[in-house]
Amino acid sequence: MDKYAVPRQTGSPLCQTMPRVGQEMDQGPSADLKKVTEKVTNAETDIARFQSTSKRVEDQVQFLTAEHEKIVARLEDQEGRARRNNIRVVGMAKGVESPSVKLFLETLITDSLRPKRLSKFFTVERAHRDPGPTSATGGPSEDNHRKNFQLQGQRCHPTSR
């Protein structure tokens, strides 16, 4: 006789299902427990996949942030160079350059180019009139003269320093 069988009322539905429940208990974990275990395993796999993806994304963000900082620094350098490469005419009186300093310099330089066919390749992007620093006498300062001489490749007289 089965160890889970009830001797009385052998025809009742409870008595018929009891041996089956007992056999399932003897066989090991139930189907529900297997489903829960499978769900937990899937969740752990998804979490591990998310963590590895998260790490890759974090590394990419750090790399792109560093690249962004390099590009910003390069852009600031280019802007600084663009400002330095502007043509500045020191000591030009206001109103001489009608209608603009840019057009005035373009005309002046292209008219002085020899041969004339080179003038079509020459354009001025930016030009500015700069009154320059003045000394107590109202003229350009000695420091300004020194800079101009040095730019032309000449040496300043020691007494002008």
Describe this structure in words.
Residues 1-30, 122-161 are annotated as: Disordered. Keywords: Coiled coil. Residues 149-161 have a biased composition (Polar residues). Residues 33-67 form a coiled coil. The chain has 161 residues and is mostly helical. 57% of the residues lie in helices and 5% in strands. The chain is built from four helices and two strands, in the order H-H-E-H-E-H. Strands 1-2 form a two-stranded parallel sheet. Strand 1, helix 3 and strand 2 (127-130) form a beta-alpha-beta unit. It is rod-shaped and about 120 Å long. Mean pLDDT is 71; it is low at 148-161.
Please describe the structure with a list of short key phrases separated by commas or semicolons:
single chain, 161 residues, 2 strands, disordered C terminus
Strand order of the largest sheet: 1-2
* Helix content range: 55-70%
Strand content: under 5%
Task: Give the rounded overall mean pLDDT.
Answer: 71
Enumerate how many helices there are, as a single number: 4
Question: What shape does the CA trace take?
Answer: rod-shaped
Largest sheet: 2 strands, parallel
**What string gives the helices and strands in order?**
HHEHEH
Structural class: mainly alpha
Low-confidence stretches: 148-161
Number of strands: 2
Q: First CA to last CA: what distance? A: 123 Å
- Structural Rg: 45 Å
Keywords: Coiled coil
Biased composition (Polar residues): 149-161
Region (Disordered): 1-30, 122-161
Coiled coil: 33-67
